[in-house]
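Input set for joint prediction.
Command: fold jointly, output tokens.
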Amino acid sequence: MQVLNSQLRFAAARFAPNRGLVVALLLGPVIGAMLAFGTVAAQEATNVITIDNFTFSPKELTVAVGTTVKWVNHDDIPHTLVEKKTTFRSKALDTDDSYSFTFTSAGTFDYFCGLHPHMVGQVIVK
Amino acid sequence: MAKKGFEDSGQGLGRREVLECMVWAGTGVLWAVSGGVPHSVGLIGDALAAEPTGFTFLQMSDSHIGFDKAANPDALGTLREAVAKVKAMPIKPSFIIHTGDITHLSKPAEFDNADKVFGETGVQIHYVPGEHDIIDEERGKAYLERYGKGSKGAGWYSYDDHGIHFIGLVNVVDLKGGGLGNLGAEQLAWLEADLKDKSSSTPIVVFAHIPLQVIYKEWGWGTEDGTQALTLLKRFGSVTVLNGHIHQLAQKVEGNMTFHTALSTAFPQPAPGSAPSPGPMLVPADKLRTLLGLSTVSVVQGNKPLAIIDKTLAG
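tokens >
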């Protein structure tokens, strides 16, 4: 940001008559990127399922078609994710590993841990 | 307490006796068999006093090579300690039964390290896989390539030694959502055929990773179709069931059947329902070795047909 600011000041000083335009041109993409980042962050926050103490949280998640859901394992023990009809099956997730799956069709997806099948969860795609 | 599994039931052991047993439990379980009819001991002194006939075997379990988290940053180191105990035994065991979770993540280097340390025992090892041994990309291929020679399906097999019929079962593959451990129809059919020509007086030792009996359903500590296997074994005069998975001792005698789970050599797990999850239990460093170990099973002459001695790494 420091570099960008100094460039901005330089540009603004040099093209004084067009200052407003220059600022808009330079800042536009930055603000746009920040907005985009904010949107992605917000989306990720709602579509992350965490694994703590052999439990999926949230246990049930409802998302729109096209949404990518990410699972993150916080346990000291590996877990896997297996959808009952094997729509998806992850590799083993060690501590802090994650797995993402994009739901391209509507439906109810029941899944469990392939190593500890008493761990169950559900994603509803509308 | 009813759900707590079978640690408290069956034997009628007082608290003091159980604690003494726990002190031993950690390096191994000693089993003794005589008169062809094994029975569980829990009476450690008797097993120790008995004269071995030369047939002793060990149960080791849940080595989790590759595990490096807080509950035990050096699982390979504690396995080395356990193996040192084996090497120091006055009577060399005939073989070792490993009830699964050799590795933590089924990585080639983890299997290599485990093989190297277990190799130092100079004793043959009969393995069955735990769920941690079949999480390679090809779901169990790495395990079968190393240990599956002569086995069927996902790695089950049987063999005879000193008049005892040993059966290694696999209950960690093709698990169903919401369920427990799983043997599957193919393996149960094989078991039925395997037992068909065996006389009911043949002592049976059956071993698998996850307990065949349900110890604690909420944590998945049991086998969905385990009862079907136990039903096939009911006609035998002496059945000993050895399991791992739960990283703690649990014993129960039910009719002619003796159930025993071994300690891990890597990390302890909490008693059923005593923690939010069955994950690795963090204990003070000076307590860790009292909760890890192995079991010696010894065939002895005497009036106590079968004896198990559990020994901790601290002992």
